[in-house]
Amino acid sequence: MASFPSSVNEKLIARSRTVGELLAPTSPFDKKCGRENWTVAFAPDGSYLAWSQGHRIVKLVPWAQCLNNFLLHGTKNGANAASTRLPRQSSEGGQKNKPCEHVIDCGDIVWSLAFGSSVPEKQSRCVNIEWHRFKFGQDQLLLATGLNNGRIKIWDAYTGKLLLNLMDHTEVVRDLTFAPDGSLILVSASRDKTLRVWDLKDDGNMMKVLRGHPNWVYGCAFSPDSSILCSVGASKAVVAAILV
């Protein structure tokens, strides 16, 4: 473990400060939210912050506006302002690529979140591209939510609309990660001891199942060039796989 002189440590501590605090509503008679917050994620372009509000609810907050409220009103007041003053997207107007606040009910406990953005040049690996139900543009931003029942729900981050419901895991989806190359390849890690690779440009079809963990799989991550996937689990080992 690296060590630093006390003067350096003091500078690092001085530079690290709390910007603000977002609070989930407390609803003792409503199991949708108000419990432990288990996961949080930033959009790749910094447009959104998403976090699980303790049960079924995920909140998407436009980060720039949220940060401005923190700076204007302080830590606690900024949290209140972020929950009440951010604009919501109307059903008929507004630009799709303008970040607006959304509250999403995922229908079950949310364990994992991941944002993915599309690059049009990265085509699906499916041959019959003309038969795809969804066509993702360059401004597309997706939010994947991994649930307690093994399902993965894919949402349009700009509208809050449910796009895909991926069903193949048999246990909790503990982690999600998108390939960083804009291909919208999604990998999910689950307590069912497997990782599954999904092609969202092919309407969410599952490309392959990765086995090798003898116990629960807790987390996964792509290499920067999207060619290698590493995963960890209860077996206390890192498993690396080459994705072709």
UniProtKB/TrEMBL annotation:
InterPro entries per the UniProt record, alphabetical: WD40/YVTN_repeat-like_dom_sf, WD40_repeat_CS, WD40_repeat_dom_sf, WD40_rpt, WSB_SOCS-box_domain
Pfam families (alphabetical): WD40
PROSITE patterns in alphabetical order: WD_REPEATS_1, WD_REPEATS_2, WD_REPEATS_REGION
Name under which the protein is recorded: WD repeat and SOCS box containing 1
Domain of life of the organism encoding this protein: Eukaryota
Keywords carried by this UniProt record: Repeat, Ubl conjugation pathway, WD repeat
SMART domains for the chain: WD40
Spans of repeat WD: 166-208
